[in-house]
Design goal:
heterodimer; A: alpha/beta; Rossmann fold; about 35% helix; about 20% strand; globular; B: mainly alpha; MetI-like fold; 2 domains; two-stranded antiparallel ribbon; 2 strands
Chain lengths: ~300, ~325
């Protein structure tokens, strides 16, 4: 249903060209859940924007292809892309405090989304909105529909955003860290709801996160991104239980839950490299304990890992 | 809401009271109007008669007390110079100033918001850079000089528009208004353009800055991700958010356009309140100056009240804060 091949998205910055998405390829089947994991600045959000045509200048998709339901999305005229957005591909964002427009009522923001793609009458559009609010677990939707975003808690706002994303029963939902800004308990609820909703509506889901433990629970497969590239991908249990890329290994080691008691947390030495000034060869080379002379050439992506010396 | 408006009106009375005291005292210190009003050859007796006729022979506090008494009855005293009620003299001139202010605000808002939006949405285009450069000029060139230039180009060299004075007026609900006729608009165009230039630049720059800031926020991206047409993302989602700070500035500027149209009115010989008050200050015509300031203060407060009410219409968060 979704095939991404050699996608490259660049940003012109003061320091030079930054490749936020660098030669990314993956496939997604209907109803599949893919977790995209990476640190801040690894290009995972830009990957999401590239898929839905929301990369703003100074950024642009330079090359590669995004095929969705048999159509090539890269280079699609803006009007056709708009017709897809919110209809077949929906996106939800990180901070629910920021994604809903503070000065428009929930009703306005939901109904306009219906009208963007369908010419129903207002009563029918409202009915669809109410059904979707109910679907995401919002009590007394009739009253809530008339309210404004500031009258909702963070978790409730994210539910509203999810309800908006589901309005047209999209085939693909891109979720850009939608639980990061929420309390852990609320996070759990939203994760649970999301899992239920994609199952019920039959949508495929790309879940972008920096939190491996989020992915562990419910993604079918995982792609680990580092400095704009996918360095490892595969089925969730394979990647999490027997990581093959040293970066994935270090990422797993730095999750606090794995170190109970007074054990010092493992950190990845150094910092994420600037995307405009990547080291030659493997981008992780300078922070990797296994690096040798061979690593100064860029490793190919082979059998789901991009490394000269895969673990295991 | 009603309680809020009533409380604001009560505050208004207090502000008017304080203003009147300050202006009254200030003008008393400046000099004795009798010196200006009477014939220099007049003898002591005639001076005393004039002072008594104007009520200037009483101690200043008593004069102020009498003035306050009159104020609450709606009487702001008689002009020393015109011998007519001060308020009447001012209200007579007010329509001329108000129509100038109205046209100027219409120009600056009607042009400023679209131009600012354009410059904010397409910051790299040449047109946008030209708009911003123009706004710097509008911002920094002195009003009187621009006014003279406008007269030189459009009235003297091209001869398209009249340079001074006000066009024919017609009676609308008891006010004499000139801008409902083409001829009247021809007269009003240059002065209001002159008056608008600074506000226009201000609104362009403010709108652009707001657009640049808000367009990066997530709610815009989310609106686009919903598949909304660009016209709706900009015309509803973006515009409604940038209007909140704009309304404050527009309100303040409307007040200042009314109160400080003096320079423009002088250059274009526009018979408005600004011209009147300058003359009155020179002639120490205290009732007119005091009445003028009270009228202006009152208008400022009213405009601010309207802005606050508009605020709550624009921003639902303000509505809630009030109810609590």
């Amino acid at each position: 249903m979704l095939e991404i091949e050699n996608l490259v998205t660049e940003f012109a910055t003061r320091d030079g060209i930054a490749r936020a998405v660098n030669d990314v390829s993956f496939e997604l089947k209907p109803k599949e859940i893919l977790g995209v994991v990476g640190e801040s600045g690894s290009g995972k959000s830009v990957l999401g924007y590239s898929m839905i045509g929301l990369v703003d200048p100074p950024g642009r998709v330079v090359s590669g292809s995004v095929r969705f339901e048999g159509r090539e999305l890269i280079g699609l005229p803006e009007e056709e892309m708009r017709a897809l957005r919110g209809k077949r591909i929906a996106m939800i964002f990180q901070d629910p405090m920021m994604t809903l427009n503070p000065v428009l009522s929930i009703e306005t923001q939901m109904v306009e989304t219906v009208f963007a793609h369908e010419s129903f009458d207002r009563a029918k559009a409202r009915k669809i909105c109410l059904e979707n609010l109910e679907l995401v677990g919002i009590a007394s939707p009739e009253r809530r529909l008339k309210q404004y975003p500031h009258e909702f808690s963070g978790g409730m706002r994210q539910r509203v955003a999810i309800a908006i994303a589901l309005l047209h029963r999209p085939a693909l939902i891109i979720a850009d860290e939608p639980t990061t800004a929420l309390d852990v308990t609320v996070q759990g609820q939203i994760l649970y709801e999301m899992q239920r909703l994609v199952r019920e509506t039959g949508a495929a889901l790309v879940w972008i996160t920096h939190d491996l433990s989020v992915v562990a629970g419910f993604a079918d497969s995982v792609a680990v991104m580092y400095a704009g590239r996918i360095v490892e991908n595969g089925r969730t249990e394979d990647v999490l239980h027997s990581p093959r890329h040293p970066y994935t290994r270090s990422l797993l080691d730095s999750v606090p839950a794995n170190n109970i008691g007074q054990v010092r947390l493992r950190q990845i030495p150094g910092m994420t490299p600037s995307l405009a000034r990547l080291p030659a060869g493997c981008s992780f080379r300078e922070r990797c304990g296994h690096a040798d002379a061979q690593c100064s050439s860029m490793p190919e992506m082979k059998t789901s890992v991009r490394c000269h010396h895969p673990l295991c | 809401m009603t309680v809020y408006v009533l409380r604001r009106l009560a505050q208004t009375l207090l502000v008017l009271f304080v203003t009147s005291g300050l202006v009254f005292g200030g003008l008393y210190l400046v000099g004795d109007p009798v010196e200006i009003l009477v014939n220099p050859q007049a003898d002591q007796e005639e001076r005393a008669r004039t002072a008594a006729a104007l009520g200037l022979d009483k101690p200043v506090l008593e004069q102020y007390g009498l003035f306050l008494k009159g104020m609450f009855a709606g009487d702001l005293g008689k002009s020393f110079v015109f011998g007519r009620p001060a308020l009447e003299v001012i209200l007579e001139r007010m329509p001329a100033t108000l129509e100038l202010a109205f046209l100027a605000m219409l120009m600056s808002v009607g042009l400023g918001i679209p131009l600012g939006l354009y410059a904010g949405l397409y910051p790299d285009r040449k047109t946008s850079k030209a708009i911003m450069a123009g706004s710097i000029l509008g911002f920094s060139l002195p009003t009187f000089w621009v006014g003279l230039l406008l007269i030189m180009v459009f009235a003297v060299q091209l001869g398209w528009l009249p340079s001074t004075g006000r066009g024919p007026t017609e009676n609308v609900f008891g006010f004499s208004i000139s801008i409902f006729s083409v001829e009247g608009l021809r007269y009003a165009f240059l002065p209001s353009l002159n008056l608008a230039l600074f506000k226009l630049s201000l609104i362009i720059r403010l709108t652009r800055a707001q657009v640049r800031e808000q367009a990066l926020l997530d709610y815009i991206r989310f609106a686009r991700a919903k598949g909304l047409p660009r016209s709706r993302v900009i015309g509803v989602h973006l515009l409604k958010n940038i209007l909140i700070p704009l309304v404050t500035v527009i309100g303040l500027e409307l007040g200042s356009v009314i109160a400080f149209a003096i320079v423009t009115e002088s250059i274009f010989a526009w018979p408005g309140m600004g011209k009147l008050v300058i003359d009155s200050i020179f002639q120490l015509d205290r009732p007119v100056v005091v009445a003028y300031l009270l009228v202006v203060v009152f208008m400022f407060i009213m405009i601010n009240l309207v802005v606050d009410v508009l605020y709550s219409a624009l921003d639902p968060r303000v509505r809630i804060a009030e109810a609590k």
